[in-house]
Predict the structure.
Amino acid sequence: WSEPMLAVKRAFSRGSGSAAPAPPPKPSATLGGLEILFRTRLDECLVDVVHSPERGVLAAATADGAIAIVDATDGQVKVVAELDEEEPPNAMAFTPEFLLHCGEDGCVRLVAVDNGTVVHSHSMTEAAEEGKRPRCRAVDGVVPLDGAFVAAAGCLVHACRVHAAAPFCELEHVLRAEAHVDAICAAPAREATRWSYAFALKGGVRLVSRQGQPVCELRTGSMIRSLGVFEHWLAAATYDGAVLLWDLEASFFPGAQAAPTVTLRSFCGSDGKELCWNTEGGGAIAVSGSRAAVFDFTGQNVPHPYRNKYGVAPWTPRRGHPDPVPRVCMHSAPGGVQSVAWEPRRQGAGQAEGSAEGMSPRLATLDKQGAVRVWQPLSLPLRKGGNGNPSQPQLMKPQFYTFPRQDAAHPTGESVDACALLWLREGVVAVGYSTGELIAWRVAA
């Protein structure tokens, strides 16, 4: 080979093979304080996990379409439901009687928790138009009501009564929205006489009575990704990072179209994928994103140099009303925080494992590397800061910074995809992993 030809050969040789992809960075978890309580391994990748505190069990869905019912105390697998469907569910939820399994084929299956059998399959397939086949849309949302459930599939919403014995499921009403239903939530007990459930669609949120009558429209131009309600506040997290709040004491009028009462922004990359209410002491909202963010409703008067200045919305401390200055959970992980969950607290039942008298509410977060962190964002210390250039304080967006108290990664120390974060009880948090593992940790006080 001549020298010019060798140079050409070397150039093509360097480009002929693709470089091996860099391994994902290992998660950073150095604080400790989380002790493994149980580690249950299933045969297939986990895609979703839901919890029934009343029954004390978990339902873990695997990629091959099976559902494992797992004891939430010790992680023992009680039964495995082998459904006819080979696809995993899009959504699951527990009623007092059954597990609801929502599939790609447009069916909601009622699964007996004790033995894993499907006792009823409710189809949400639309009626066929003349000369056309029936349209089937995946069921991608479900919420239980008192003795019933509401499921959404595309533009369709079905409300069904649930019975403990045959016929098991009875259709109560059907609504067809003018756009895809993006999120759904049930009304709290105090609101149930005025409305039963709400669903988000393009243009806002629709509140519906138990009889299937739309009773109120909450309007917004933003695309809503998740919904949540506590007492008289209905919250909607949007794709663009905002949290919209409607005060239903002021906004609920039959037939009305109400704009948001308050719009909250974290300025830390919130994505609206998950919104979770804490129901203690006036409440708090946590939202997922590049970093988790928390908005406090307890009325704490924490001073901030930018509060009530430079165009920031004025705020007077008041229990049950939102502080517009967010509390940002200060940890950066590739991909950000995918899940947030508040610890449940027992009222008047003494202190559970991993808890302490007078402890402020604890928040768990799960990042894209599978690491779980525990925070107390409603307590001190809080650092004062903001988003923007400090040399231009009139443009700064004020923030409080809070830091993790405990953390843990997957026991291998590697980055592992996770599908679910949930508290099993006070002091015990669990994560479902793509490796097929369900791991529960006891959280130190």
The longest strand covers residues 270-278. The mean pLDDT is 89. Residues 388 and 396 are 5 Å apart (CA to CA). The chain is about 5% helix and 45% strand.
